[in-house]
Structures are given as structure tokens and as C-alpha cells.
């Protein structure tokens, strides 16, 4: 970066309302095994372009339909995926939104949810697979980046996939 260039300011974290709007928008008409493969492959492609050291996981109805671990990811990422996915399954909302709702109340998920933090993590990166007229049937999850970046990567992939 040239010396006199301004330092880019980080994008602000989305509000609870912004996160809820993402979930209202990002709804599937259906979600098949082939959709999981295509969405997972898109996430891997986006992560590879950015050289992001992430693991990607897609579950539907308790079954893992897609998993990939990119260079630089570790077994810890798989543990984070499971913990974030359990939050989506329990609350029917993205792991980042669940954490944001607790923070908006002046507390944390860990302090106030009464759930085991070794089993549940309300950190960004897991997003519900919501099917029209059905509800939440699964989750798409990324782990390996700071939580807001995990969340944004999943949202970007969902936006692209659902436009297609």
C-alpha cells in the first residue's frame, strides 16, 4: 500500500435487524443433495480465491451432505463447525444472529444461554438452510476466519447461489 493511502476502515458489524433481514431474504425453494454439493463447491471456490484456510460443511436433517477442509484449516475448525451448527439447529437462526441478540441485551451467549460452550458456539459462520413453506432444514457452516468473515463468506455464497 502506498504511504499516503488511507487505511481502509473495516466494514461495521451488521445489526440484529440487518442479520434478520438476511435470513428473510436467503430462503430456498427446495434444498437437495445436488444443491448442497453446488453450494458447498461455490463456497470452496470463493475460499480458494481468497486463500482462506477454512473448512466448509453443509448438513440437512441431521445428515452431512458436504464437507471440505482447505489448506490451513485444522481439526479445530471441524469442532467449531459442529458447535456453531448446533446453535442454528437449536435456535433456527444464524449463529452470528444468536450471538448478536445476546450482545444486544448486554450479555453474552456463554453467560446467559445456560448451554455448554463445549457443545454450542454462537459465533459467526453457520447459517440456516431455510426452505419456503417448510422451515429450517439444515445449516451451511464455515470455520477458519474471524467470525464476521466466516458469516460474510456464507452469506455471499448464499446470495450468489440463490440468484443463479
UniProtKB/TrEMBL annotation:
Family recorded in the similarity comment: Belongs to the UPF0303 family.
PANTHER family cross-referenced by the UniProt entry: PTHR28255, UPF0303 PROTEIN YBR137W (PTHR28255:SF1)
The protein, known as: UPF0303 protein N8I86_15670
Domain of life (superkingdom): Bacteria
Organism: Streptomyces albidocamelliae
Gene3D superfamilies registered for this protein in UniProt: Haem-degrading domain (3.30.450.150)
Pfam families: HbpS-like (PF03928)
